[in-house]
Design goal:
This protein is of the alpha/beta class. Helix content is 44%, strand content 13%. Keywords: Hydrolase, Lipid degradation, Lipid metabolism, Signal.
Length: 309
């Protein structure tokens, strides 16, 4: 009986506690969401491949080392020999496939001499060879945006091809004066792009590159006398474009210079040495390339915060 009375006396207290539990409690405050780091800014990497005839095989070695270190260009530009390698790379070939093509290349497949026009190379074979390797796709249908730089003979103007026949554009860019016939496109004539843009940094920028890695394989005048018509003409073009080239190279973020000075413009048998020199030069430049990319990424990520203040 006493227990029942005690329970009845506790009922009002239990009821009030129940009301407090229903109406007076507050939900616990959730912890603040963790601050996430800002997303990493994706930069468009541009690769500008310069001219240099047989020295151009060095570009393959450079691309091998870039990809081996996780750097895959988003856009490519090429002048002369750089346009040949650039076309194959932009078409989707990896550097090992390009190296296989280089080793299998017979010079007769790209040289069609016309005896009745001063012994110069016509260039049609080079055009057909490139088109075969890129599966006859035009410039604007390749895997990567690609620009080919040439020189219009009538005006001396720098011309950048980003649409149309890939092999034809490469032929125009590679038409060394005195060695190749000028390439005719839509009634105009074009010669080697190295006359006006030895290393096409600006063309890579025009394709939207945030970072431009330039590969300079040009021959500097060293006091020695080049032997052979191709070498003489090649060095003459390098001398003509040297000042322009220096100004344009200054607009690159990184310049890679493979040591290919000992390789002649027509020394196709030294292609393996040129590829090795490209690998060595790119590997030596890798810390600077990664540091430059990181610095530009950091600056781009900080830019919105600066604007907000």
């Amino acid at each position: 009986m006493t227990s029942i009375r005690r329970l009845r006396s506790l009922l009002p207290l239990l009821a009030s506690l129940a009301l407090c539990a229903c109406h007076g409690s507050t939900k616990p405050t959730p912890p603040p969401a963790p601050l996430l780091p800002p997303p990493v800014v994706k930069l468009r990497i541009g690769l500008a491949l310069g001219g240099g005839a047989a020295k151009g095989f060095a570009h393959i070695g450079v691309i091998k080392m870039l990809e081996a270190n996780g750097i895959r260009p988003d856009v490519v530009s090429g002048t002369s020999a750089g346009s040949v390698v650039g076309a194959l790379y932009a078409s989707g070939m990896d550097p090992f496939q390009m190296q296989e093509q280089a080793f299998a290349l017979d010079e007769s497949r790209i040289r069609d001499v016309r005896l009745f026009s001063g012994g110069v190379v016509q260039g049609q074979k080079l055009q057909d060879y490139v088109n075969q390797l890129v599966k006859n796709r035009p410039l604007d249908k390749l895997e990567l945006p690609f620009a080919v730089v040439s020189t219009q003979l009538e005006t001396g103007q720098r011309t950048v091809f980003v649409r149309g026949n890939t092999g034809q554009a490469v032929r125009a860019s590679s038409s060394i004066p005195g060695v190749f016939e000028p390439a005719e496109i839509n009634g105009k004539h074009y010669v080697d792009g190295g006359v006006v843009s030895p290393v096409p940094v600006d063309a890579a920028r025009e394709l939207g590159a945030d970072v431009v890695i330039a590969v300079d394989i040009s021959t500097k005048a060293s006091g020695s006398n080049p032997v052979g018509m191709v070498n003489i003409v090649g060095q003459s073009i390098s001398i003509m474009g040297q000042k322009l080239g220096e100004q344009e190279l200054a607009r690159a973020d990184i310049v890679i210079r493979p040591k290919v000075g000992q390789i002649g413009a027509a020394d196709f048998e030294q292609k393996n040495q040129a590829i090795l020199e490209g690998e060595r030069a790119a590997l030596a430049a890798m810390p600077a390339i990664k540091a430059k990319i990181a610095a530009i990424q950091a600056a781009r990520q900080a830019a919105p915060a600066v604007v907000a203040h």
